[in-house]
Amino acid sequence: MPLVLAATPLGDSRDASPRLVTALAEADVIAAEDTRRLRALAAALDVTPRGRVVSFYEDVETARLPKLLEALHAGETVLLVTDAGMPSVSDPGYRLVAACVTEDLPVTCLPGPSAVTTALAVSGLPSDRFCFEGFAPRKPGEKARWFAQLATEPRTVVFFESPHRLAATLGEAAQALGERRAAVCRELTKTYEEVKRGTLGELAAWAGDGVRGEITVVLEGAQRREVSVGDLVAEVAARVEAGERLKSAAAEVAVEAGVSKKELYDAVLAARRG
């Protein structure tokens, strides 16, 4: 029997699919990020799980893998659910899926709510092409490198951030990226859902008053610009100063800007010598 990844409601239990209700009732094993939340969701859906319920959060994810794989090999159905949204998307699940793929065990998915696509849809920003960045980096050096990469990312960017770090991250983004448009989506589908739109600076000022709840940020992509190799030398230098290797930084900037990797690399070396 397969590993079943099931999306759970972001906040409103009425968003649960009929297939999720059936899976909760019939699975042999339910691996839940938070067993208490799983029990509360089951109660809200008026369903009684008949299978074993085991915790499967980040700190125990690796340790739980052998038993779950053993259950799958024995022909049991294992249902994986996280607190909200789709398992493995910045939540536990990836390691188990990868292990199943390695051991040629079937994996299927019950689609449903996702904070990523929900926020993108209501943001008012271009949604034809986007990228998902998970949680914003915490360490200053990693965050600086992240902003350097986003400086030339043309796609709309979606990422998660904790409420107590939101104001600082938005302020740093405004300094690094300029006054791009963005949307902060808070408590999606819940009673106090709020979508705040504006420039990065405006949103940083708003968040400075204090924000609570689950946060998803949608950021406008960089505007494509006509550039010469010379214009890009400073950008590569900034990324190298933030900790990237010169060769990889030059290659990435060249690809993003549509210029020759070799020409840009040689220009950076020439600037260093000169």
From TrEMBL:
Location, primary (coarse class): cytoplasm
Gene assigned in the entry: rsmI
Function recorded in the entry: Catalyzes the 2'-O-methylation of the ribose of cytidine 1402 (C1402) in 16S rRNA.
Cell location: Cytoplasm
Pfam families linked to this entry: TP_methylase
Source organism superkingdom: Bacteria
Family affiliation: Belongs to the methyltransferase superfamily. RsmI family.
Native source species: Amycolatopsis rhizosphaerae
SUPFAM superfamilies: Tetrapyrrole methylase (SSF53790)
UniProt-listed Enzyme Commission number(s): 2.1.1.198
GO annotations of cellular component type: cytoplasm
MF (Gene Ontology): rRNA (cytosine-2'-O-)-methyltransferase activity
Keyword list, A-Z: Cytoplasm, Methyltransferase, rRNA processing, S-adenosyl-L-methionine, Transferase
Start and end residues of each Tetrapyrrole methylase domain: 3-204
Protein name per the record: Ribosomal RNA small subunit methyltransferase I
Catalytic reactions of this protein: cytidine(1402) in 16S rRNA + S-adenosyl-L-methionine = 2'-O-methylcytidine(1402) in 16S rRNA + S-adenosyl-L-homocysteine + H(+)
Keyword Cell wall biogenesis/degradation tagged: no
InterPro entries: 4pyrrol_Mease, 4pyrrol_Methylase_sf, 4pyrrole_Mease_sub1, 4pyrrole_Mease_sub2, rRNA_ssu_MeTfrase_I
